[in-house]
């Protein structure tokens, strides 16, 4: 923890080596976060770049109430959300029908699924479902927080999450059938 404080202080003094060290320490993990929100690496790298600019601009505001990594992740997620809001429309979120049938809380079929395979399935979701699934299931935000971030209703967040789970379940079934057919 003391080394992290020293690194932060050096960054605040505009020490380029310290800034590079901070970036290298967190960039890999934060790129993975960005990739959960957009479909291609170049777009994710742009978001990451924008996020780290904000990190360095606001590093003096870091109060240590959470870990530095958690603070940076919050900036990365918010930057990704702003990118999505500026690039894609959320106007159609309110119009999405609630899914038919009951969706279980657990996502059966995820066992044995590799991260990249799951990420590919998530990227196939409509942008609203994808974003809300990431925020709720992966980042751990509550629906009221998501609603405030995206300026949508809490009900819309819940219905989009349920729809995302339904679509992922369907995609998993297709993948399982494809895998079973390849075995025989």
Detailed description of the structure:
The chain is mostly helical. The protein folds into two domains: 2-87, RNA polymerase sigma factor, region 2, helix turn helix motif (Rna Polymerase Sigma Factor, Chain: A); 91-183, Arc Repressor Mutant, subunit A (Orthogonal Bundle), CATH 1.10.10.10. The chain has eight helices and no strands. α1 (2-12) packs across α2, α2 crosses α4 (68-87) and α7 crosses α8. The longest helix has 30 residues, at 154-183. It is globular and about 60 Å long. The chain starts with a helix and ends with a helix.
Topology:
Blueprint: H1 2-12, H2 16-35, H3 41-58, H4 68-87, H5 115-123, H6 127-138, H7 143-150, H8 154-183
């Amino acid at each position: 923890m003391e080394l992290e404080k020293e690194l932060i202080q050096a960054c605040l003094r505009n020490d380029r080596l310290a800034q590079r060290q901070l970036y290298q320490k967190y960039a890999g993990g934060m790129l993975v976060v960005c990739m959960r929100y957009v479909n291609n690496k170049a777009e994710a790298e742009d978001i990451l770049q924008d996020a780290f600019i904000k990190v360095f601009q606001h590093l003096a505001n870091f109060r240590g109430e959470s870990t530095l990594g958690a603070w940076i992740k919050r900036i990365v997620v918010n930057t990704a959300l702003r990118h999505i809001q500026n690039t894609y429309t959320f106007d159609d979120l309110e119009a999405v029908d609630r899914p038919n049938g009951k969706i279980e809380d657990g996502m059966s079929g995820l066992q044995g699924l590799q991260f990249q395979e799951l990420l590919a399935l998530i990227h196939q979701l409509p942008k609203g479902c994808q974003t809300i699934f990431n925020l709720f299931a992966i980042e751990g935000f509550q629906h009221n927080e998501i609603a405030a971030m995206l300026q949508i209703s809490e009900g819309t967040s819940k219905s989009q999450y349920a729809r995302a789970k339904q679509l992922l379940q369907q995609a998993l079934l297709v993948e399982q059938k494809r895998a079973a057919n390849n075995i025989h």
